[in-house]
Amino acid sequence: xxxxxxxxxxxxxxxxxxxxxxxxxxxFWDNMERAAELxxxxxxxxxxxxxxxxxxxxxxxxxxxxxxxxxxxxxxxxPVKTEFGAPQQEGGTFDWGSKGVVTPVYNQGxxxxxxxxSATETIESYFALGGGTLTQLSMEQIVDxxxxxxxxxxxxxxxxxxxxxxxxxxxxYESYPYTAGEGQSGSCQFNKGNVVTNVNSQxxxxxxxxxxxxxxxxxxxxxxxxxxxxxxxxxxxxxSCGNQVDHCVQATGYNNYSPEYNGESxxxxxxxxxxxxxxxxxxxxxxxxxxxSIGDYAxxxxx
Length: 303
Description:
alpha+beta; nine-stranded mixed sheet; 8 helices; globular
């Protein structure tokens, strides 16, 4: 275990003081035991050490997840989309990343701003799908300026869309870059002169059936999920997950009955923990079980 801990330190450039080393080693050991338990529950996935393996589950939640008030969400849930266009592709494998409407994977850092990333990524995708140039947009604007939500302490993609719509648009990432990665939002620097696009409307996507229909025909989807078991995820298809929602991400596509994953069918989910986590920043979540509550808090926009 100690040699594995040293390999972890070397891979992720982790340096500890003499006083810290033993405590961090114990946390790492506990996480490797949890990883082994998760591996047994998820035979088609891989669990081991990640950049988060020296954090206790409590520390991981504090820095990288958030509280998600499901009752409050129901008060602002957007209207459900009921009609869908013709499928881009029947069955098989499909991902919007191959269509030029998904920006590169971001890194939220130690800030519970996943809700702002998920919302921004979805606006980026639908702006591109509507004929605009794929442009990185400013999640920092939402973190700093949206007073309905709580910056690094969490929020909802749906209220982020509402903020953008009421404010008159969202700036580019280039003009208003992300700076909250150390856990602290800043003062609002929104400049209407740098607006790239606005949100015209938003909709909920209902359940995994709706998620599949939207991914087939419409575009990527913002989804809020239980990511508490993702801390030690390395790759493969997740088949066991909780349902206490604490993180928002973007579903970009699906793999149907892939031989690579023992015939498992899975959603392609883009995270905001950088490309060194998971499968180049993505995770595969098995379909058909509403795993991690993936179909319960899904939204899209027109932009």
